[in-house]
């Protein structure tokens, strides 16, 4: 079973930056397309960025040009650099699997606890 641990969230002012990390257990990591998701209060969880095993990236329109997803296969870790943060980016952020092609969710059987990001105006 895959185990995911997210970290790096916090409280930041609008326009600021944060870097999230997610450590993934399991030998499948280097072959897996990974994604960052977020869920704001009262809203459905949404996919915001994906990265394939070959480091091809894709982004939701709402974060394109501001967020950067990356991975370190040696550390089984995926990152999300978030710049020019806006109050509407406030959410709990999760990492999980994603589709290998296109842009869509393909989560593993479990989710981590997520990390809270709060952007003040």
- Described by its quaternary structure, the protein is single chain
- Can you tell me the residue ranges where pLDDT is under 50 for at least 5 consecutive residues? none
User: Mean pLDDT across all residues, rounded?
Assistant: 95
Mass-distribution shape: globular
Physical arrangement of strands within the biggest beta sheet: 2-10-9-4-5-6
Strand-pairing-aware structural class: mainly beta
The helicity comes to under 10%
Any idea what the radius of gyration is?
13 Å
Note the total helix count: 0
Span from first to last CA?
Answer: 40 Å
Strand content: over 45%
Please summarize the sheet with the most strands: 6 strands, mixed
Number of strands: 10
Which sequence of SSEs, written as H and E, runs from N to C? EEEEEEEEEE
List the keywords.
single chain, 121 residues, mainly beta, four-stranded antiparallel sheet, 10 strands
Question: Can you walk through the features of this model?
Answer:
Helices cover 0% and strands 45% of the residues. It has no helices and ten strands. A hairpin with a 5-residue loop joins β5 and β6. The radius of gyration is 13 Å and the shape is globular.
List the helices and strands and how they pair.
Layout: E1 4-7, E2 10-13, E3 18-24, E4 34-39, E5 46-51, E6 57-59, E7 67-72, E8 77-82, E9 91-97, E10 115-120
Q: Quick summary of this structure?
A:
The protein contains no helices and 10 strands. The protein is mostly beta strands and 121 residues long.
């Amino acid at each position: 079973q895959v185990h995911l641990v997210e970290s790096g969230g916090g409280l930041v002012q609008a326009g600021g930056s944060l870097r999230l990390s997610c450590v993934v257990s399991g030998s499948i990591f280097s072959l897996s397309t990974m994604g960052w998701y977020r869920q704001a209060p009262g809203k459905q969880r949404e996919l915001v960025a994906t990265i394939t095993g070959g480091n091809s990236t894709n982004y939701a329109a709402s974060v394109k040009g501001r967020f950067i997803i990356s991975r370190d296969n040696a550390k089984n870790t995926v990152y999300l650099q978030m710049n020019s943060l806006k109050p509407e980016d406030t959410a709990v952020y999760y990492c999980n699997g994603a589709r290998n092609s296109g842009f869509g969710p393909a989560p593993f059987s479990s989710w981590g606890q997520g990390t809270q990001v709060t952007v003040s105006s």
